[in-house]
Amino acid sequence: MTDTLYGWMRNLACYFIFLSAVMHFLPDNNYKKYIQFYMGLLLILLLLSPVLDFLQLENKIDAGVDRYMEEEERDREEWENYAREIEEEYGWNKKSEDTGDTQPQDEEDSLQEGAVGP
Q: Which ranges does the record mark as transmembrane (predicted)?
């Protein structure tokens, strides 16, 4: 328990040192309000970290984020497969779109494999 409290206090001390260093190194005061806003958000997270640890909400949040990332990865793979199917169905390929060349994919593959070129 005391290790947790000392760790929390150390994090707060590091935060305030970092905040003062950033504020002193700002060339203009134009960005001061933005830096203070984001550093305030970071301070809120630091202050809430013991509560999140006690209630074990951090594990629940991490699990939710992991589930979301897995779903996004599956969706991305599905869309990539769908795009490949459409490209194969219509004979499109990415290289011909970039160069404006209208050669079918099979002819271009045979040229790349066997031809030496000029």
A: 6-26, 38-57
